[in-house]
């Protein structure tokens, strides 16, 4: 049976995705037809509800990356599809309430029943879909070619978390004798830190022999990624223009910040009151914690957070990141950090104009200077206003290295658009499903590089 399915593997996986989408729609439409019978007969309400649900579903699935079976881990897919379904249900429910002249507004409990059933369907569908995908796809026989052995160890430990996607046999230095001959048996090649000339030759070799190739980017790669093709006379060149927010983009971004932060303050006020009381009762110390951070163009401001550490936590240690199981963090602080509630007061920083909803996280000046010693490009993050959330916070972890966070922040800066801001705002909800998003810095031993004999 599996051998037969492999012949039509793309169609089979598409059918699984389409089937999951269909059952989510049928769940919403079928259950709400019990309280809104007009959905079962041809009517304006039926047509508009169908259209609203389908358009909202497509929009939110696009925001959350669709249903990437075989690409991401099941838990990540479940979080993405569940959030897309949740927001789709809300939009469709509001539309249905308006179309039914508010007759079903008190049936909002049905929304929770629908979502609960959808969540179960998403879990079952995702695990089944990933199981089927990897039954049809064997792990790609892979190899890593590197320039820096220590960096390669760290990267290899990450790749090996995806053993169903890639079976990494060996790792080789780019200076290995007869390198291309050794690459020939592999389907997938990872390239990391190779000199420009060697990198170009290796990519061309992989292309020639139809091998999948993954390249860990440098700063120049991020800058040139979205370059435009320009023909100078009869010569094709790639042009990368100095990127900065236009006046119109700044106005729209500021209006979006004001609207979301104001609504956020109003909705979060009860939670902030509970957090403030919990912090105060924990040890009697100050509720808020102010710290000098750096935002756009190197301007300093005082970031506002709920205090999660003991009073004067950095008096002896100085400016350091929190470590895993840090004994300076209070019991209440651990809960606030876990739920990201310690960040809520920064809504006032956004209202004041010191921060934006989306942007690189603000760092301390002394840490920026320290990072710049190793990564001079780190200050490029200051081209835009610091943010409450951002690409590095969503895609990375608390203990993601400064270099990797820098690459994500620059990816955001170089690709900025209002649409990207909206996507990242909605994707921020995924952070609550990531158990490692609030971990402190951990110094774990990386896996050893296995050299080919």
So what's the oligomer here?
Answer: single chain
Strand content: 5-15%
**Helix coverage percent:** 40-55%
Distance between the termini: 39 Å
Total beta-strand segments: 10
Q: How large, in whole angstroms, is the Cα Rg?
A: 25 Å
Outline the fold blueprint:
Layout: H1 2-7, H2 9-32, H3 44-63, H4 74-99, H5 109-136, E1 140-146, H6 149-159, E2 166-173, H7 179-183, E3 188-192, H8 196-208, E4 212-216, H9 219-224, E5 228-232, E6 235-239, H10 247-283, E7 288-294, E8 300-306, H11 314-317, H12 331-338, H13 346-351, E9 356-358, H14 365-374, E10 387-389, H15 391-395, H16 402-414, H17 418-427
Parallel strand pairs: 1-2, 1-3, 3-4, 9-10
Antiparallel strand pairs: 5-6, 7-8
Protein architecture, described:
With 453 residues, the chain is of the alpha/beta class. It has helices at 2-7, 9-32, 44-63, 74-99, 109-136, 149-159, 179-183, 196-208, 219-224, 247-283, 314-317, 331-338, 346-351, 365-374, 391-395, 402-414, 418-427; strands spanning 140-146, 166-173, 188-192, 212-216, 228-232, 235-239, 288-294, 300-306, 356-358, 387-389. A four-stranded parallel beta sheet has the order 2-1-3-4, sandwiched between helices. A two-stranded antiparallel ribbon has the order 5-6. Strands 7-8 form a two-stranded antiparallel ribbon. Strand 1, helix 6 and strand 2 form a beta-alpha-beta unit. The radius of gyration is 25 Å and the shape is globular. Residues 437-453 have low confidence and may be disordered.
